[in-house]
Every structure is written in structure tokens, then in C-alpha cells.
Amino acid sequence: MPYTAELKKLIKNVEKTRARRVEKKRKGEEFPAMSLDERTDILKYHPDFKEEGRREICIGPNKGYKIANEMVDLIHARSRVNPESIDLSSPDYETDVLVIGGGGAGTAAALLARENGCRVLVATKLRIGDANTMMAEGGIQAATKNGKDSPYYHYLDCMGGGHFKNDPDLVETLVTEAPDVLAWLEKLGAMFSKFPDGRLKALHGGGTCRKRMHSAGDITGAEIMRTIRDEAKNHPADIKILEFTAAVELILNDKGACEGAVLYNLETEEYFVCKARATVIATGGSGRLHIQNFMTTNHYGATGDGLFMAYRAGVPLKFLHTVQYHPTGAVFPEQAEGLLITEKFRGAGANVLNVDGEQFVYEREPRDVEASAIIRECTVRGKGVPTPTGKFGCWLDSPMIDMLKGEGYVRKEFPGKWILFKRYGIDITKEPMMIHPTLHYQNGGLAIDSSGKTDIDGLYAAGEVAGGIHGENRLMGNSLLDVLVFGRLAGSAAAAYAKKKYKPGKLSLQHVAAYNKEVASIEDAATRVSPMVLPDYSNPDVRKRQLTTDYVGTIR
Amino acid sequence: MSKSAEKSRKKEVKQSLIPIYIMGKKHEVPDSLTIQKALEYAGYQLVRGCGCRGGICGACGTVYRFPNSYRIEVGLSCQTVVEPNMYIAQLPFFPGNKATYDLDTLTATGSTLAALYPEMYKCIGCGTCTRSCPMDIDVMEYISRAIRGDIAGTAEASFDCVMCGLCAARCPAELVQYNIAILARRLYARHIAPPAKHLAAAVQNTRKGVFEEGVKKLKKMGTEELKKVYTGRITEPDIADEFWEPEDMTYLVSEKTR
After folding, report:
1. Where are the domains of chain B?
2. Angle at alpha carbon of residue A81, lines to A113 and A515, rounded to 5°
3. What is the 3-state secondary structure (H, E, C) of A408-457?
4. Beta pairing, strands A93-100 & A271-281
């Protein structure tokens, strides 16, 4: 639906200040960026700092660690299966490398494992490519213009964004491998935005000191995902893809190494044993857990399954106490609620404004800082813009971009968003967008080393499910990079392990049995199962009437 | 369910309800919902036909019809708002042939497309594909460009494709348009668009270890020192042109000297 009459009236405030703001920007005058102290101060408005939103984990390697209630709920939960009922003696699938998850990291891992001479099985609970990677819009960071940028500056930005808490080795790997990843994508035929001479176009992102955000229109993730998916499908003999098949438990052996996973066919409700010489977990993030009831930009399948499976097997968690809220999720129209409005809009110069049409924050602060400032504006300062459903948001002034960069820029560089809003009767080249922070990214996850290896032999993790690379806050454009850097490395390392180091043992689900037993002593925990696999948005009134007494299957 | 979620549910119920027909069966749903949310409201838990919920993954291609209309309408269920008396069916999957190839060895010509997707020439120019595209892509136009051997044109015109398969589902000539399109895009980006020279140089510099010392130095710094370096770093101005270089060229390799 188009903007209501009330909102159109409020847009006048934005229009009133626009010419002045554009003029300032042209002169290179920006709203002052916050000092490190000011950043620390404003973070008290960030949802991570709400004490009632989290509690301690009572089981496993991170006992005593406080993270979001919604995540603890799934750690304090029993397995979907009774491990004793699973016959491990005759596996249904055997492969060199099992990749769990078919998003960016999983697909990259599959391609590299194959390149290194392995047969690969990709098990994914939806379709290959149905993942947060597909939805990443703004871009991918890499220091590709050495006249002004290098891994040195990329490293600095990444550490600053993560509050200097990131794992230095992982950051070094991220920034050093970045140019290689861009070259790999170029060779695979991903259509990046380029100048006629082949030079890659690049913009700033929040927290960057050099323009190193490379993009493919405003559908960078989709372009990358569909390209590597197409490539994975070019090798049907070596890369087998099992869709609508989720992994629900890892299989260890008597020596403690990982040797595959229990897979679950979501449609026939059968469980299968997959034996693998090496396993890569690439199950992605967890936005669909709706931490503190936040709306999310995440994919339908983002329920953090890999975290909970691997934690049961003994892999520690890192940085999971911080969750990223993207500063600009749509709050209007209602149908688009939670939808990501790419940071590239701010990279291209769009101001963030309050109900009076005034700036209150520099538009390119790191995400946690930007989000906190918007939340403060909408709460304690009372300067939010009211939506017809009683929520509050701020304006993102997209029309000023064409004034800065030339007529037609928004239409050309943001085709996805332009079409989407046009369907709702809103022309984003003429009217600003209404935004509010939305649950976006799991900063932390499973502990890994720079090759993607976890503490368990034969088990690797890559992408959003892993933690440490981004410290306490990820910068824009470092997640598409992360999934490809660590997906590729984990795929190669898993292949090397499968070929040279793998030693077969006796398959076991003993760790699951032991975990189930321990969980039984935690209050309420026995009533929950994890991993969640898919969220349930079906109507609670309908659910009240679903009274089948004994049914444990895909959907109930 | 939390209180606030419950509240919003109650608000929803107060909204006006309209009848829709999910695979022929009548349900009353709030008129503000997308087809996807309406299915969930009606009690379905989706396994297939649901993905990003944001109009980009192509998982939720949907066909619908209104009584007394001959037209078949299409849309992505996560993007299309319900209307009274819609008869809705989702397309959970539609088979589409994909050629396998080694991109490196292909040439970016029409004959490559013709060899891998010879059925392309069966196109009868009916335009059903264009009318079936939820992304408003002129599918028939890019297919005619492909037939003419215009790889760059096909790539450009198909760029917004989400590969939902609605075009292929409705094509009387049995083409799989979206797979022809992605082949054209990959051919274009790999073989027609000039490679980025600065990228090749950056790969070489980085692999040679030109920046290794700088990064190692940062890694060794204590947090306070690192914060100082971070705060003191020069930011490239927004309005700087493509070949801007800072005064301090330590840890950089000027592009101007090459």
C-alpha cells in the first residue's frame, strides 16, 4: 500500500531539509561520526544489553555462558531421535565429504572439496541456494585496489567493527583470502558491476575507511549464489545434492572423530545414516528464532541447526552473546515488514532522519552503533515516525541519492528494491523509505581455526554458523566474503583430511544419548526438541484444534 | 507466544476477512496478508514453496485465477497480497533441464547457447513467458536476443531473474528460459566483460606477501595501540574519484606508477 495521508504529511519534513543536506554532502561535510567512547555509550540501547533477554547455559562445553533465551531453549532440548533406534551398521549413504547446508558456504565447500578430488554429498533442508547468502544485497568486501586499499586497512576496519575482540588469525585469513575470492567469482562468471574497462565499481559500507564494497546491482548475494549453484550443478557425478533433507545429529566414532550425520527427509519423515570421511557444517544463521521477538531479514530456514548439533557433539561456542540487528529493515508497508533495505543505500549517501526530517546519526556508523541510535530515536527521544500499526521507524532518504549521483542512479543500482516498492505504490526515487532495526545476523557461532576445522577431527564449520571472525559485530560486506573464504578453505581442508588423515572407527551416537540424559535434569528441557529445522508460523487457533494424540513427524 | 505477538494476532483478527480458495478449499483470511502468510494463517506449515520470504530466492512461484476470468495470474506468494476469491495453487517444483558445461572452454557466442539448449529455436514468440514473470522481466525479449546470439543483451535483460520457473512452467515451446539466461550471464561475465586488472594485481600482491608484514604488525598490537591506529586511519572521502590515493602509501602499492 502507498504511504497514508499522515505519512505523506510527515515526508514534507524530509523534503524541507533535503536540499540543505545534499548541499552539505556535496561539500564533503558529514554529520559527525561518533568517537569510540560515544559508540560504547550508545550501545546501552542495543538489544544485546538487555539482561532479561538472556540466561546461562547449564550443559556442555560453554556451561555458565549467557546467551539469548531463544538459543538456550534449543540447547536445553533433547534430540529429535532416540539414538538407540538408529542402525549405524549399514549406512544409507557413503561419501568422502558430507556438506550440511546448501547456501554460500556449503556450496563453496562442495566445489572446493570436489576440486581436491573428493566425492561430495550436500544435504540441505530446503533447496540448494535457499539461504541467507541469496538475500545479501549490498556487496562483498575485498581490498582489490591496492593504490588506496590493502588487507592492512581491511583488517583494521574489521577489528574496529568487531570492537577489537575478533580472533586475529581468522581476520587475517579473511582479509588475505579476499582478493582470491573475488578473482574466483570473476572466473566463474559472476556479473559484478563494472566500468566499461573492467574496473570493479566499489562503494563505502558502514565502518569502512576505503571503498571496497563490490556489488552486482543490489542483488549481490543472489548473483553469487545462483552462479556457484549453477557451477555445483555442472558436476552431477561428483556433487550429489539431497534437498529437503536436514541433518539432525552428527555421528562420531569410538575415537571421537566425526564420521557423518543422521539425515532426515522432511517429506517422507524417514531418518537415514550418512557415513562420511569428513563433514562440513554450513547451516547458516538463526534469525528465525526471533530473539526478543524482533522481526528478521533472515531466510525461512535460519534456525541455527548446526550450532545445536555440533554443541551436543562437544564443539564450543564463541561470541554467540552478540546478535546483529540490521539498522534498516522495512517497517512499512506491513507486508514488507522486516525486509532488508541494503546498507548500500547509506553507502551511496542516503541520510537517516527522524520525524522532523533531521539527522541524528552519521549514516555509516558500524551496524550495532547505527541500530542503537535509531532505537534511541524511536524510544527515549520520542522522535520516531509512527506507522499505521502503532510501531515506530525512521526515514532513509533514498531520493537524495539521485540528486547526488545523477538521475537514474537509484533505478539502475537498486533494481530489486525499486520494483518491490513500486508494487506497493511507493517510488523510492521520490519518497523516502521507513526503516527500523531488524534481526539480521548471528555474529558468533562454533569455534574454528583458520582452516575451518573445529575441535573435533573430521568436522569443519564455515559461514554464519562459525564464530570469531567478526568479533562482536560484523561489518557490511564481510559476510558474503566470510562464507566464500571459509567455505572454500573448509572444503579444501575437509578433502585433505578425507584423503590423507581419515581413520575409520566404530560409528556411535553415544554423545546424543548422554546429552539426552543430562538434559532430562534441566527444568522444561525434556519438553523441547532441537534442532528446530523449520519455524512454525501456522495459526495458533488452528493448532489448538490439531489434537492428534501420538504424532511426532515433520510438522507437528 | 509472547504477549506482544498475541496482541498483534488479535489486531489481525479484527481486520476484515476475505474468502480465498487454497487448492480449491475455502478459507477466510485477513485482507492485508501476502498469499504466503495467508497459507500459514489458514493452518499450513510450509515445507516447499517457501524460502527467503523477501522476493529474491524464487522458491514460491504461485498461480491463481479469479472466478469469471479466463486469465491465469502468477506471482511470488511472499510478494503478492491476497484478493477476494482467488483460487490459489503453489508450484512446489517444476522440472527444468539444465545443461552441464565447462565455462572456461566455452565461447561467448550464440552457437554455444544453441548447442547446449537447441530447443531455444522452438520459441513461437507467444509472449506467455513475459506475462508469467513475477519480476516484470521481458523474458521473450531476452530469448529473442539469445536466438540472435546477443549474449551481452541476454545477460543484461535477464539480470533480475530469480529462477522461480514460472516462465518454463507455462512455455508452450517447452523452453527452460532461466537456465538459458544464467548461461548467457556467466558467458558474458567470464568471456565478454573485460577482466579487472586491479584485481589480478591485488591477487598477485597479496599472494606475494606484500602486505603480510603490515597485517602481522597489527596482529601483534595490544588493543589500546590498535584502537589508536584505527581511530587515526584516513577515510577515503565519499566524493573521491576512482583513482584517489592517500598521502601515506605505506602498506599500499600505487596504481599510478604501473
Report:
1. 13-90, 103-192
2. 85
3. CHHHHHCHHHHHHHHHCCCCCCCCCEEEEEEEEEECCEEECCCCCECCCC
4. parallel
Which of chain B's residues have a Cβ under 8 Å away from the Cβ of A349? 238
Amino acid present at B257 = T
Q: Mind listing the domains of chain A with CATH numbers?
A: 5-30+324-439 (3.90.700.10), 83-322+443-508 (3.50.50.60)
Other CB atoms within 10 A of residue A189 CB: 26
Chain B nearest CA to A58, separation (Å): 24
B13-90: what CATH class?
alpha beta
What is residue A524's predicted lDDT score, i.e. its pLDDT? 86
Please state the φ and ψ torsions of residue B208, each to the nearest 5 degrees. -70, -15
Grid cell listed for A278: 569428513
- How many whole angstroms from its chain centre is CA A152? 25
Backbone angles phi, psi at A112, to 5 degrees: -75, -35
Phi and psi, residue A208, nearest 5°:
-100, 145
| A420-440 per-position pLDDT tens digit | 898 888 999 999 999 999 999
Q: How far apart (Å, rounded) are the C-alpha atoms in residues A398 and A218?
A: 14
- Give this complex's ipTM: 0.94
Chain B residues with beta carbon closer than 8 angstroms to that of A28? 237-239
Question: How buried is B79 (Cβ within 10 angstroms: 0-12 exposed, 13-18 middle, 19+ buried)?
Answer: buried
Q: Give me the pLDDT at residue A137, please.
A: 85
Q: Residues A248, A531: contact at Cβ < 8 Å?
A: yes
Residues from chain A that touch B160, judged by Cβ atoms under 8 A, are: 219, 415-416, 419
Instruction: Give dist(CA A445, CA A427) in Å, integer.
Output: 39
Question: For residues A143 and B205, is the Cβ–Cβ distance under 8 A?
Answer: no
- Whether B202 and B255 have beta carbons less than 8 Å apart is answered as no
Give CA–CA dist A7/A240, Å, rounded: 52
Alpha-carbon dihedral sign for residues A419, A421, A426, A428: negative
pLDDT at A552 (0 to 100): 61
Residues 407-436 of A with CB under 8 A from B: 415-416, 419-420, 423
User: Is-catalytic flag, A21?
Assistant: no
Residues 533-552 of A with CB under 8 A from B: 534, 536-540, 542-543, 546
- Secondary structure in 3-state letters for A507-546: EECHHHHHHHHHHCCCCCHHHCECCCCCCCCCCHHHHHCC
Q: Residue B246 half-sphere exposure, CB side, CA atoms within 13 Å?
A: 20
The span from the CA of A126 to the CA of B147, in Å, is 34
Mean pLDDT of A342-365: 94
Cell of B213: 608484514
Residue bearing cell 520516531 = A384
What value, to the nearest 5°, has the Cα angle with vertex A282 and ends A281 and A283?
100
For the stretch A200-259, pLDDT in tens is 999 999 899 999 999 998 899 999 999 999 999 999 999 999 999 999 999 999 999 999
Summarize pLDDT for A74-128 with one digit per residue, the tens.
Answer: 999 999 999 999 999 999 999 999 999 999 999 999 999 999 999 999 999 999 9
C-alpha cell at A428: 523510492
